[in-house]
Amino acid sequence: MEERLLGAMREVAEKKGKIVVLTGAGISAESGIPTFRGPEGFWTVGSREYRPEEMATYAMFSRNPDEVWQWYLYRIGICRAAEPNAGHLTVARMEALFGDRFLLITQNVDGLHLRAGNSLARTFQIHGSIEFVRCGVDCTKEVFPLSPAVRVKKKHEPLSDGDREALRCPKCGSRVRPHVLWFDECYNEEYYRFNSSLRIAAEADLLLTVGTSGATNLPMQVGHVVAQKGGLIVDVNPDVNPFASMAGQNGGFFCQGPSGTILPKLLDAMTN
Ligand code: NAD
Ligand code: ZN
After folding, report:
1. Which residue in 238, 233, 270 sits closest to 253, CA to CA?
2. Residue-wise pLDDT tens digits, 40-77
3. Between 20 and 30 A from 258 (CA), which of 1, 38, 197, 208?
């Protein structure tokens, strides 16, 4: 690892400023959870293959709620069976070390950061969480835990009557939906911490972006705010992506490689 990068990480750690870690699906890839852009991204309904950008939409849920729930219950099964990897554990150690100087913004809905030890108070799950649901017709803003009576599914296994019963809104009886931000929906503060994420970005000394392809809006805005305010951007990803370019243009660094290997080295530099 480049000496200039290690020096910059040490310097950030010694200062008093905020450290923001922004993660995407890539950090969970080494735990066996497929990213959306990989070959595992497709879902077949009838004779047609759908992209996540089509499945994870309110439009699809309104037309075919059972199919959307089958897809989610299959993915929830994968996430529950997965374990946090060295990348998640390093991010949890960063929170333990830097306390209220630290904030995690994650696009992941898999809950692995919380299971690795990050606190809910310092984790903004800006795309929601698959372990929670809310009313599918918005009769209430309340968010509920996914009922334990709902069973996870094998690929394309249909819902049972018991699942359908347990997937009802406790207030109005309509079907609940996963508490996640879909591709045809907008960010907001109440569910997804939109304004808070941008406010914290403006205070960041360091933005560490990990495993995100930069295809979503709020993460890109967070990057631009940090760059504008002169914070250091360090990107970790095996592939070139918009955050790598953003880092390069603003005196930051692109660490090309898997997060499970790179993040522990970066934390070492911050602590030694
Ligand atoms: P993405 O699927 O668009 O991109 C994943 C990125 O991770 C790519 O840039 C890829 O190069 C990188 N990557 C792959 N392996 C890696 C590794 N070992 N270490 C570091 N990086 C690695 O993911 P995204 O940008 O997060 O956006 C996709 C959307 O899909 C988000 O809205 C997210 O909520 C959702 N999603 C979540 C999960 C999850 O919760 N685990 C999984 C898939 C998709
Ligand atoms: Zn309702």
Report:
1. 233
2. 778 888 888 899 999 999 999 999 999 999 999 999 99
3. 197
Ligand index nearest the alpha carbon of residue 255: 1
- Report H helices in the chain: 3-14, 26-29, 52-55, 58-63, 65-81, 86-98, 112-116, 161-166, 189-192, 194-201, 217-228, 242-249, 259-271
Residue nearest to atom 19 of ligand 1 (CA): 258
Of all protein residues, the one whose alpha carbon is nearest to atom 18 of ligand 1 is 258
Amino acid letter, residue 188:
N
Cβ atoms of 121 and 103 closer than 8 Å: no
Residue 212 Cβ contacting ligand 1 at under 6 Å: yes
How many other CB atoms are found less than 10 A from the CB of residue 68? 24
Convert the pLDDT of each residue in 127-161 to its tens digit: 999 999 999 999 999 999 999 999 999 999 999 99
All domains in the chain, ordered by first residue: 1-33+84-127+190-272 (3.40.50.1220), 34-81+128-180 (3.30.1600.10)
Q: How far apart are the CA of 178 and the centre of ligand 2, in A?
A: 13
Ligand nearest to the CA of 126: 1
| Active-site amino acid positions | 127
Phi/psi-derived region of residue 77, left when phi > 0, alpha when psi is between -120 and 50, beta in every other case: alpha
Which ligand 1 atom sits nearest the alpha carbon of residue 37? 2
Q: Ligand 1 atom closest to Cα of 87?
A: 19
Three-state secondary structure call for residue 144: strand
| Residue corresponding to tokens 């905020």 | 18
- Residue ranges for the chain with pLDDT beneath 50: none
First to last CA, the chain: 14
